[in-house]
Structure formats: C-alpha cells, structure tokens
Amino acid sequence: MSNRRSRQSSSASRISDDQMIDLVSKLRQFLPEIHERRRSDKVSASKVLQETCNYIRKLHREVDNLSDRLSQLLDSVDEDSPEAVVIRSLLM
Amino acid sequence: MASADKLINTDVPEKDVFAFHFLQSLSNLRKQNPFDTPDQKNYRVRKIKKAAYVSMARAAGGSSRLWSRALLRRAAKDDNKIVRFSRRKRKVTWKISSKRRRSNQRAPVVEEAAERLRNLVPGGGGMETSKLMEETAHYIKCLSMQVKVMQCLVDGLHYNKN
User: Fold this and answer.
1) Residues B98-127: tens digit of each pLDDT
2) Model pLDDT, residue A45
3) Nearest CB neighbour to A49, from listed B2, B96, B114
4) How far is A63 from chain B (nearest CA, A)?
C-alpha cells in the first residue's frame, strides 16, 4: 500500500482507481436517462463518458435554442412593468 | 486508505445566483446596444448566447474552477480584452502538458471517450482525466442551472406577452 502511495505522489497526484470509480458514479447521477445496469457497482466508464458527452451537447443545443427565443422575445417587450414582474418572479 | 484523502466537491450555487448574473448581463447588453435594427438578429442572438455562458461562468465561481476560467479567458479573447486572474494558493497544479497526459494509464477505451469530453468542456484539453471528471460534473450542473434560468425567463416573457 505504501508503495502505491509513494508512486502516486510522484506522478502529478493522480487519484486512485477507487476515487475514479466514485467520480464516475457521481457523474451517473447527473445523467437523466441512464439505464440501471445489472452490475451497477462495476460501472462501464466509457459508456458513462459517452452519455455525458451527449448530455453536454444536448445542453449546448438548448442554450442555443433559448438564446434564440430570448432574442425574439426581448426586443418585442416594452420597457416597463412586464419585465419588472418577470424579474421579480425569477428572483423570488 | 488513499481514497479517503481528497474531498471532491461539486456543489454549485443556487438558481437565483445564476439568474442574477444572467439578468445583469442582459441589462448590460441592453444598455450597450438597444435592440432596434432587425437585420442584426444573428448578432443579437450571439451576444445573448455569449452573455449566458459568461454569466454562468461568473455565477459558478469565476476563477475557482478550471472550466469557468477557460471560458472567461476565451470570451475575453474574443473581445480583445486581457483577463488577469489573481494568483491562487494552489497545492497541486492540475494543468499538465498533453505529452505528459499521454502517459496516463487508464484503459484506452476510457481515454478515447475522455478525449471527446475534453473537446466539450472548456479548458479540458490540459486536464488530466481524473480532474476532467470532476470539472465535467460541475460543468454539467452549472449548465443545467443556466438552462433552467433561461427557460424560466422565456416562459415568463412569453406569458406576459399574451
């Protein structure tokens, strides 16, 4: 064990494989559509990473979409009360 | 017990922090260029999109995350501004050159997927795989927060219009 630790600290402080598994399982929690696998303790890391990539791409597309709609909506709204109401409702 | 050493924190601020920063960005945009000319539509959309990413990076803690720093640096470079981040007391330097990164001993199929992830996460190119995972988790949380804020704003404006 101590050998492993000294080897770890010499090479850019890589985390152990246990921590890697822990991080991957954390990532799984954030992915909305991941299916429950039979061997859920042995995570398929590459599958999780792939799902993560897809999810990030999807979120980027949503940001694009919403930016587009916001641009349309913002220039057709009057200055005064509707915007104030919206802003208040968001910050509640 | 090597795994109990480091605490990996992926908490993000509450939704209103993101909302506040985004609204601030939007009102700054308004002050700079009033939305009057219709043929500048694409320009407006790009400005809003950029405001979304920049305000998200700021809400997420600005310089305290590698991805948010990379994002802000990239945005400032687009505007030809120079961004200076204060020197932080860092115990470990996570950014390593890609030559060293190649010696990472993870399974090649994992590394291949990680490479694709590096292209998606800001600043991912210099991160080691383990750090990349942590940054990705935080990035995804912040992105989904930002999307929620924007959706609320769109819904609110849409509802008020009708």
Assistant:
1) 555 544 566 777 788 888 889 899 888 888
2) 72
3) B114
4) 6
Q: How far apart, in Å, are the Cα atoms of A63 and each of A29, B33, B75, B124, B151?
A: 22, 21, 16, 20, 9
B81 against B112, higher pLDDT? B112
Dihedral sign from CA coordinates of B44, B48, B50, B54:
positive
For residue A78, how many C-alpha atoms fall within 13 Å in the half-sphere facing its CB?
A: 7
Please tell me which of the candidates B2, B23, B150 has its beta carbon nearest to residue A63. Answer: B150
pLDDT at position B162: 64
Predicted confidence band of residue A18 (pLDDT cuts 50, 70, 90): low
Among chain B residues, the shortest Cα distance to A27 is held by: B137
Residue A11 Cα to chain centre, angstroms: 28
Q: CB-based contacts of B77: which residues, under 8 Å, 6+ apart?
A: B83
Residue partners of A56: CB distance under 8 A and separation at least 6? B117, B120, B121, B136, B139, B140, B143
Cβ of B118: how many Cβ atoms within 10 Å? 19
Chain B contact set for A12 (CB, 8 A): 92-93, 96, 100, 128
Hey, are the CB atoms on A70 and B48 less than 8 Å from each other?
yes
C-alpha distances in angstroms, B59 versus B19, B74, B94?
9, 17, 22
CB spacing of A63 vs B44 below 8 angstroms = no
Structure tokens at A73: 């909506």
Q: Is the ipTM of this complex over 0.95?
A: no
Q: How far apart, in Å, are the Cα atoms of A79 and each of A74, B28, B30, B161? A: 10, 14, 11, 12
Amino acid at B107: A
